[in-house]
Specification:
The structure is a single chain. The protein is globular. By secondary structure, it is of the alpha/beta class. The chain has 11 helices and 12 strands. The strands form 2 sheets. A 6-stranded mixed beta sheet has the order 1-6-7-8-10-9, with helices on one face. The chain has a 6-stranded mixed beta sheet with strand order 5-4-3-2-11-12.
Length: 316
């Protein structure tokens, strides 16, 4: 027997303030009954409150206030790293794809050893720490480590020798366990939680405030231009409004390496990869620039006064 209108309104109001799961528990409802109550509520009152329940569960109170004024919640995080001085050294690595047969963890270990030797102040990583589980036909045969736990543990073991603080974001391969399989995990966040010197600062994008400048890490799902490696960086920087520009923009995903100095007063690094060319990339006629960067910055007045960027390549 369906609940009366007053009871339906009471239940949906409780769901709005406490969430669906808590409402089901409070009123002793199973999935089938809950869905029936929602249908009955829509029949009498429309689906407005149901939409509000979904918004309530997806956004924080502060984000809901921003939405109510027409503003957009910040799509990425900003973290502060305490640093004194004008000279800043940064180690940059990206797209390790740990767990892939094309990824050799020794390359990552060599990069970390060089960062340690040069005593970099921080290490940054713009995504695709792991290969993930992309769900392409036959891709399981291109994995050395199958599944979330195996790849997470491999990454923790590989990155634990780093001496400098590390800041990472997730890439599309890292997110594949959610996007392809819907299992609700964040592998980069879990890797960082297991490493005392590492911090996950965002999903696909994140900013670091350090030495009075802003560094943006970006992964993205776009590709590199087939006729100019610099094209992607130009378009990404052109899309940023004047007051929101970082001093340094470091991008992953394309497996290309390039340094583009001071375009719109933004220094741009395409971070390369620590994975050899895969069969998928070979089929797409895409080269892999395998290596890592060490950046030496002189900073002041919220800008980069000068920057040296050295690329350390690996060759087979």
């Amino acid at each position: 027997m369906p609940a009366g209108k007053q009871k339906l309104a009471e239940i949906m109001l409780y769901a709005l303030t406490h969430g669906e799961k808590n409402a089901m528990t409070q009123y002793g409802l199973n999935d089938e009954t809950w869905n029936r109550y929602k249908r009955e509520y829509r029949k009498h009152f429309g689906d407005g409150i149901e939409s509000l329940v979904k918004l309530k569960e997806q956004f924080t109170e502060d984000e809901l206030k921003m939405l109510s004024t027409g503003a957009r919640p910040n799509p990425h995080n900003t973290v502060a790293h305490s640093f004194k001085g004008a000279a800043l050294r940064i180690g940059v690595m990206s797209d390790n794809h740990l767990g892939s047969i094309y990824s050799d963890p020794k390359l990552t270990l060599e990069a970390i050893a060089e960062f340690n030797r040069q005593k970099v102040d921080i290490i940054v990583h713009p995504g695709d720490v792991t290969e993930g589980m992309m769900g392409r036909p036959g891709d399981v045969y291109e994995l050395t480590h199958i599944g979330y736990k195996a790849q997470r543990d491999l990454a923790i073991q590989t990155f634990k020798t780093a001496e400098a603080p590390m800041y990472m974001i997730s890439g599309n391969h890292d997110r594949s366990l959610n996007s392809k399989h819907g299992v609700g995990v964040d592998i980069v966040e879990d890797i960082c939680e297991a490493l005392p010197h590492a911090k996950c600062i965002g999903d696909d994008e994140g900013d670091i405030e350090i030495a009075n400048i802003r560094i943006r890490l970006f992964h993205g799902g776009d590709g590199a231009s087939s006729y100019a490696i610099s094209y992607r960086g130009q378009k990404l920087i052109e899309a940023i409004s004047g007051g929101a520009k970082p001093a340094l923009f470091i991008a992953g995903h394309t497996h290309k390496s390039i340094y583009m100095p001071a375009y719109r007063n933004v220094h741009y690094i395409e971070a390369g990869t620590l994975q050899w060319q895969s069969s998928w990339m070979r089929g797409k006629k895409l080269a892999a620039h395998v290596g890592f960067w060490v950046l030496d910055l002189v900073v002041g007045d919220r800008e980069i006064k000068s920057m040296g960027a050295r690329w350390y390549p690996f060759y087979k």
